[in-house]
Amino acid sequence: xxxxxxxVNNYGLLIVVLFIGLVLFVVLYKKNRSDILKHIVLSLVVxxxxxxxxxxxxxxxxxxxxxxxxxxxxxxxxxxxxNEINTIIExxxxxxxxxxxxxxxxxxxxxxxxxxxxxxxx
Length: 122
Hints:
- By secondary structure, the chain is mainly α.
- The chain has one domain (32-120).
- It contains 5 helices and no strands.
- The protein has helices at 2-52, 57-71, 74-79, 82-100, 110-120.
- Helix 1 crosses helix 2 and helix 1 (2-52) packs parallel to helix 4.
- The N and C termini lie far apart (89 Å).
């Protein structure tokens, strides 16, 4: 028992400092990666909207989750909880809805847009 106390006495402060450093590293790393994750999720939400269309919310959500977990490294899956990922997905969906509320903007590329506009005039 006295050996443990001596060890804690000698290395306790070092362990506390290392632990605090590790916590700070994880928090700062997560904050930095949060922006990257938001961009990835937004692009997946747009992709899901293009592939699955409107009125398919549950399918699009599953599509985004599946693709996201395929792309995310394991350590990022650990850093972000399911609730955080759900919040990021919901925010991305809202952002997409805001962008699409402008009638002059759509998800199609130029070629598809020209094709659709020309075929709808017939």
